[in-house]
Structures are given as structure tokens and as C-alpha cells.
Amino acid sequence: MNQIRTGILATNRAIAGLNSRWRNLYYRSLGVKLHGYIWMRQVEIPRNFEDIEIESDCALDRGVVLLCSGEPLPHPKIHIRANTYINRNTFIDAIESLTIGKNCAIGPGCYITDHDHGQDLTLPPLKQPMIAKPTQIGNRVWIGANVTILKGVTIGDRTIVGAGSVVTRELPSDAIAVGVPATVIKYRGK
Q1: Tens of pLDDT, residues 81-123
Q2: Sign of the C-alpha dihedral, residues 168, 172, 173, 177?
Q3: Residue 176 domain-assigned?
Q4: What residue numbers bound the domain in which 49 lies?
């Protein structure tokens, strides 16, 4: 019985690997800049493919959405650096510049953006102009499940953001931050 189970698991892994390779070829052909092999499990990139750059050895799990809107820019709107893992059902939404550093771990169900809408009282919500500020996540950052990171935020290297937090302002390197809004509660190694 264990041999059958082992065989089924091996077959499932092989199929998942082939599907991931097919997604690499498909998104490359549409203009996504993929450097090396990227592990992709049922990832969704609905448009503006040329605005996305992903470096080698990254993994994007099931249900990850990479969405770029607006006119093309001379630089990638979403740039994911090498060896980063993005867990299930995370939504990354950019119109200007959203960078995720090397060796990061992003938990499931996160929302990361570089923009929001204006607040003009004379306009209905869907007619509001978009307001963008670059969002940057440093290297070796660990983001817990269901974290929201808003526009204009910089998260320093090696910082940990606790599950369910909402990051509304800069977090320094080596910090541990939690809450709504996320607040530094201590520093790593201290």
C-alpha cells in the first residue's frame, strides 16, 4: 500500500512540475520577464505582462495574483527578487513600483499594493484618481498570513510582520511588528 501511495505522490509531483514549466513558457511568451525557472502553481496574471519581472528560484503558490494596471513604464511595476516564496491566495497589485526583496517568505492571503484611490467629495468611488507611491519590501523579510501592506511603505531587511497586521508606514530593519496598524514590538536579536 505504501508503494502505491508513493507512486501516486510521485506522479502528482511530476504533473505539478510539468504544469509549472508550462506556465513559465506561457507567461514568458506573453512578455513576463522571468529569469531562470520559477515554480508557479495556478498563478494568475491577467494583463500588462511586460510590467512584471521575477528573478530566479522564486515560488508562487496556488491562487497568487500579480496585477499591474495603467500605462506601461520603463521599469517593472512588480519586481520579485530571487529565492522568494509567495504563499497561496496572495494578491500583489501595482500601478507604479512594488519591489519584493531576495529570500523573502510571504504568508497566505496577503494583499500588497503601491496605490489607493483619491477622496474627492465630488466624485463617486470608482471615478476617483489613483494615487501611487512606491512600496518596497527588503531582503529576508518574513510576512505572516493575511497581512496587508499599503502604498508607500518600505519594510527593512530581515523584518518580521505578524499575521493579520496592516502595514501603513515604514518598518525598520530587524524589527518584529504586529497589529492594526503594524507597530514595532521588539527587534530581532535583542
Answers
A1: 999 999 999 999 999 999 999 999 999 999 999 999 999 999 9
A2: negative
A3: no
A4: 2-160
